[in-house]
Amino acid sequence: MIKSIFPSFLRRDHQAGRPRLTRPARSALLALLLTGLAGLAAGNTTDVGLADLFPNERQARTTVVINKALERFHYRPFKLDGDFAGSVLTSYLEDLDPGKLFFLARDVDRFSRGNRLDADLGRGKLDTPFDIFRIYRMRVDTRIAHALSILDQRFDFERPETYLFDRKQASWAATEAQLDETWRQRIKNDFLLLRLAKKDDDAIREQLRNRYEGIARRVHQFTADDVFQTFVNAFTRTLEPHTSYMSPSTSENFDISMRLSLEGIGAVLRADNEFTVIQRTIPGGPARQSGQIGTGDRIVGVAQGLDGAMEDVVGWRLQDVVEQIRGPKGSVVRLQVIPKAEAAGGRMREVTLVRNEIKLEDQAAKSFVIEGPDNAPKLSIGVIEIPAFYRDFRAESEGRKDFRSTTRDVRRLVAELQREGVNGLIIDLRGNGGGSLAEATSLTGLFIDDGPVVQVKDSFGKVEVEVDPEPGMAYTGPLAVLVDRNSASASEIFAGAIQDYGRGVIIGEATFGKGTVQTLIDLDRFVPGDDSSLGRLRLTMAEFYRISGGSTQLRGVEPDVRFDFGLDGIDFGERSLSNALPWSSIRPASFVRHGGLDLAGLQRRSNQRVANDDGFRLLTAQGRILSEIDGQKTVSLRESERRAESERRDRVLKDEKARFLRTRGVEPVDEEADDVDEEALEAQQRIIDRIQTKEAARILADLISDRDDPARPRAAMSDAPR
How far is the C-alpha of 129 from the C-alpha of 46, rounded, in Å? Predict the structure, then answer.
């Protein structure tokens, strides 16, 4: 369980006249997992009366405390003024009505006109956000009643018209008539989507009726604490996307979820408009191992057991969807998903998963050897896959000397690979979302002799340097690090340090760009003697900087040799988040760079190979489809066009996958069969996953050949900020 530790370690810096973190506090904070934490609310199931939706004294006190905590401790300078309050109001309206399906433009104008939200929030006055929510609830009732009244009408699915399904940039409707038309198109799109899933019209009407009634029912179940938490999170998100608030009930359930966090399907979820989206899958978890669920897939239905009824979850709150998916080890959950490659209007897939405990062994580093890359048949390249930067803190705290950690496992694997006589080593960090900073630092130390690894700047401007804890190197040979857009946080620290030292070549895609550190603050500590719980604040309090001076924030780590899959136009990672901290730089640390590498030559030779590689043709085809979908804001409401578009994309992806697998002597698995061969599917996915690994081995073989050829010119690595 992660506990609040920040305030208890604060001390007064008498010279500066302000609090700062002591060394024990900083060490404890940086030992936290550098990955996202999600608060899970216990779902209320009773109807809450409008008379109960008013702010109380505890919420007022909490608001004042949060303001002070943000002003005093947040990494980004914060001032609660009129401009900021206006942005908070915009965020709150977007959170309540992301599809602009309930409020009218005149509602928004009335909310904005003459409000004194900045002054109100400074005093803990919350009348405005609660007034807005009560109006929102009434608008939901009106709209759902209208939706149900037109659900039984017949739709003309051959009429040529389109629906703007991505409504983030849409304008608020000016009139009721405009909103009626938007809802007509929305219902028609929902109907068509279920038709594409081969449901009959009567079943579709029943499912949509339940869906729309469920939207109103869940809004009626919002308590005053739910309203308060929704508003405060709009408030904190306006400052910075990783800062959030957990109410007392959410905090209690969060503690439970942390204790159970290694049981379930092994997926991190997020809300996107009315959909629940897979943000990432956890190594070793049922979702990842199934090979049928991936980042960006949308969950639209959840069923319990092998024959339980499929519950439509479109429009549900994220907390409620999580409650449906979570369950005891060994139980079965069935998910109905729209794959990312199908967009919002595509066909659905049903996936059956057995909930399981995600063991440390499943997330542990693993190795294998690539014998004889195409361009260097006499070489062998060792590969170490690291899914996360893990450390068994419980075993360590119990005094066990044999506790499990990334660095210990990798040191052992390196020794084994060296005994096998490998000529080079690849560290594969694709999909590695981070973990323990101590492990990122000590792992870097296996490949450098000594020196700094990363710089940490706190909210008071103090910079401290994390250094290699142990002199000497476990491996001195040729090294490559393979990354992708899902390599984040601790992964970026390791890759950035290897790149800054010139110790190895970084290969793949630009990384996620998560360069900030968060902590949990128990707000009760700011109001001693108060019996009522105020909840917790997850707050950004520091930023990571590379030893070369540039931050890993926003830009991530740019690879030395880049793989291009046609995804450059898609915002991803930190770049896709509103109000993310900008990239910045500080003074470089003192360190010694290794010799130069001919990076341009490595990139040129790699480009020549991948241009004719069947595997990269598959990955590029997938990338182009995803780019096409990402740029699509509207869908056709004409059934024949919609089917043709879905079938075209499906055919491209299937044909390219089949072509590639057959070149490897593998017959493609029929993923739509009633009884999918899970082992064959997993083996097939492993072949696809290693497309990039094999090219990374060829790149490393080129680097080894360059090193061994004294006649080949060597260019120095660029010292430009990255």
Answer: 22
> Which residues have C-beta within 8 Å of that of residue 142, sequence separation ≥ 6?
none
Q: Which of 247, 367, 405, 489 is catalytic?
A: 489
- The structure's pTM equals 0.84
> Which tokens is 408 given?
């210990």
Indicate which residue of 457, 514, 657, 694 is catalytic.
514
226 vs 130, 373, 685, CA distance in Å? 11, 57, 41
Q: What torsion do the CA atoms of 284, 285, 290, 294 make, to the nearest 10 degrees? A: -100
Q: Catalytic: 83?
A: no
d(CA 104, CA 469): 59
Q: Which residues lie below 8 Å from residue 415, measured CB to CB, with a gap of 6+?
A: 474
Distance between first and last Cα of the chain: 36
- The pLDDT score that the predictor gives to residue 35 is 32
User: 162-164 and 634-636: which strand pairing?
Assistant: antiparallel
681 with 351: CB under 8 angstroms? no
Low-confidence ranges of the chain (pLDDT < 70): 1-45, 250-263, 273, 341-346, 358-362, 529-531, 673-674, 709-722
514 is annotated as an active-site residue: yes
Model pLDDT for residues 624-652, shown as the tens digit of each residue: 998 888 888 899 999 999 999 988 988 99
Residue 464 pLDDT: 96
- DSSP, collapsed to helix, strand or coil, labels residue 281 as strand
Q: Are 548 and 686 in contact (CB under 8 A)?
A: no
Q: Tens digit of pLDDT for each residue in 318-364? A: 778 888 888 888 899 999 898 876 655 567 888 899 888 766 566 78
Domains of the chain: 77-239 (no CATH), 263-357 (2.30.42.10), 360-595 (3.90.226.10)
Amino acid at residue number 466: E
Both structure tokens of 546: 């590379």
CA dist 361 and 568 (Å) reads 35
Distance CA 304, CA 342 (A): 25
Q: Which of 528, 540, 534, 460 is nearest to 65 (CA)?
A: 534
Strands 561-562 and 505-508: parallel
State yes or no: is 3 an active-site residue. Answer: no
Please identify which of the residues 190, 500, 522, 560 carries the catalytic annotation. 500
Dihedral (CA of 333, 339, 344, 349) sign: negative
Q: With beta carbons less than 8 A apart as the criterion, state whether 311 and 301 touch.
A: yes
